[in-house]
Amino acid sequence: MGLYIAMNGEGHLYSSELFTAECKFKESVFENYYVIYSSMLYRQNESGRAWFLGLNKEGQPMKGNRVKKTKPAAHFLPKPIEVAMYKEPSLHDVRETLPKVAGVPPSKSTTSEPVAMNGGKPINKPDPKETAT
């Protein structure tokens, strides 16, 4: 069993064993890939400005209505759970594969040849029989 972070109606942070509406925060990616968290439940009465989760220089929680999203107190660095690096395939490596329908002869677009692309549009390759003339 874990604990949830929550913000009450006065902007104070506390921990809760139960997940309540006060535990809901909106996660937003800010400049330079910082992450900021704003309360989904509470805002400033007059301006409607969101209340943000923030820690001061000593690591103590700050009242949500005193934290500005542009200040370092509200900036957090995300910790990736898993990093996976994938090679983006070249258009020359990608083949268009369509299911073969019984009784229908394969057309030029359903052959196993790679499809050349130009700006996202397939380019018909010239038939070698026609160009040999």
Describe the structure.
It is a single chain. The chain has a domain at 4-74: Trefoil (Trefoil (Acidic Fibroblast Growth Factor, subunit A)). The chain has 1 helix and 7 strands. The chain has one helix spanning 128-131; strands spanning 4-7, 13-16, 25-29, 35-43, 50-52, 116-118, 121-123. A hairpin with a 5-residue loop joins strand 1 (4-7) and strand 2 (13-16). The longest helix is centred in the C-terminal third of the chain and has 4 residues, at 128-131. The chain starts with a strand and ends with a helix.
Can you count the helices? 1
Q: From the 3D coordinates, which CATH architecture of the domain at 4-74 would you assign?
A: Trefoil
Point out poorly predicted stretches: none
CA-based gyration radius:
28 Å
Q: Which strands sit side by side, in order, in the main sheet? A: 3-4-5
Overall average pLDDT: 77
CATH class of the domain at 4-74: Mainly Beta
Distance between the termini: 77 Å
Biggest beta-sheet profile: 3 strands, antiparallel
| Structural class computed from helices and strand pairing | mainly beta
**Percent range for β-strand residues:** 15-25%
Oligomer: single chain
Would you count the extended β strands for me?
Answer: 7
List the helices and strands and how they pair.
Layout: E1 4-7, E2 13-16, E3 25-29, E4 35-43, E5 50-52, E6 116-118, E7 121-123, H1 128-131
Antiparallel strand pairs: 1-2, 3-4, 4-5, 6-7
